[in-house]
Amino acid sequence: MTKQAHSVKLLDKSTEQAPKCRFCGTGLRHTLVNLGMSPLCESFLDSEQLDRMEAFYPLHVRVCENCFLAQLEAYVSPEHIFTEYAYFSSYADTWLRQCKEYSDRAIDRFNLNENSQVVELASNDGYLLQYFVEKNIPVLGVEPATNIAKVAIAKGMPTLNEFFGRECARRLVQQGKQADLVAANNVLAHVPDLNDFVAGIKILLKPHGVFTGEIQHLVKLMAANQFDTIYHEHFCYHTFTTLEKIFAAHGMTLFDVEELPTHGGSLRIYARHSDDLSKPVGDRVTELRDREEADGFTTLDRYTNFEEQVRETKRKLLDFLIKAKREGKTVAGYGAPGKGNTLLNYCGIRTDFLDYTVDRNPYKHGKFLPGTHIPIYPPSKIQETKPDYVLILPWNFKEEIMEQMSFIRDWGGQFVIPIPEVKVYP
């Protein structure tokens, strides 16, 4: 089913009054940041769509005064966002290396073998499960995006094309797919019904099974001004303290945590059934919980000054681009990630500032960015046009990209990173 043919399922807001926390149900009265109106960040356009009406939705993040979960309202259903999706995990080499390291460690730490069962939720194109398959460990992916699930299946990765929750988990258990390891990388933010999703994880796990999840850390998002990682596909933004509450409410305990550089700063959490005492809670859990409390993330005041910080970053980026254009410089983009579309739409950057962008993903070639209508080309376009500046939109992969595109220095080209603030790499 194509995105064009798939009708938009707007969630019915008419019966609601104030929005409520999707975890604890408390009324949401406090703003973390309001980024105005923006289109869905992965809704890339074909040329014939450029003159048609385009849907924009509020990007207004509120924070719960009770559990401190930061969240967007779900203006559009997950079925509309994720039935066909443009993000393929296998196009980032740095990410693949991290996944291989994770799989090797998980196999060793949890004694996984050919008699084990690994299930990944939002398994994308098989980017992670392939490393378990190499070791002859049975795997299953659960992936809601039809186009991406087909790619994974073509690679030989068993994949169930549906959304995960309690119902899906019960059916998998009935089919003998109860898991020794359930993995979910960068998916918890994409889940509007948190309680259904986490309850499903508990059902799917064997009595001594382990869940691991990689989740962008709200603490790092705020500290490094990563407001561009806010978009409609991300319904929630988590601290470790809030994650503990969510899992505890469903009879699960976080017994370990790692802090990772991924996506500007992520957490890898390890969860077990609360009655599985074979895995004691480690020191890293206590240390991180205490650090978040000391930094004020269990009080509402900590969340209220972020918006002005975001506005100043917008001003600095526009100052740089206005100056560059007045000097007759050319500016191209690298990448077409969701975060880039939030940045460009919030800052009002279109082809008047950014001539075009490039991306390694062939799925995006010939399309246009949502909202801004900036064209997307293959990376070879950079060599053809020799821009003065290359604005790296997926700044979390900046080292990898600057190495790939190092040839721009042959004509004096420079890289520009927009987050946490504008920095030019000579």
Structure characterization notes:
By secondary structure, the protein is α/β, with parallel strands linked by helices. The protein is 30% helix and 20% strand. It contains 13 helices and 17 strands. It has helices at 78-82, 93-109, 129-133, 146-154, 166-174, 194-204, 218-223, 240-248, 283-294, 306-326, 338-347, 380-385, 398-404, and strands spanning 30-38, 57-63, 70-71, 118-121, 139-142, 159-160, 179-185, 205-216, 236-237, 252-260, 266-273, 331-334, 357-358, 376-377, 389-392, 414-417, 423-425. The chain has a seven-stranded mixed sheet. The protein has a six-stranded mixed sheet with strand order 14-13-12-15-16-17. A four-stranded antiparallel sheet has the order 1-2-3-9. Helix 3 links the parallel strand 4 and strand 5 (139-142). Helix 5 runs parallel beside helix 6 (194-204). The longest helix has 21 residues, at 306-326. The termini are far apart. The model is unreliable at 1-16 (pLDDT under 50).
For the residues shown, what is the average pLDDT?
Answer: 91
Envelope shape? globular
- The helix tally amounts to 13
Using the CA coordinates, give the radius of gyration: 21 Å
**H-E string:** EEEHHEHEHEHEHEHEHEEHHEHEEHEHEE
Give the helix proportion (percent range). Answer: 25-40%
Strand order of the largest sheet: 6-5-4-7-8-11-10
Major sheet: 7 strands, mixed
The percent range for strand residues is 15-25%
Unreliable segments of 5+ consecutive residues = 1-16
Category by helix and strand content = alpha/beta
Number of strands: 17
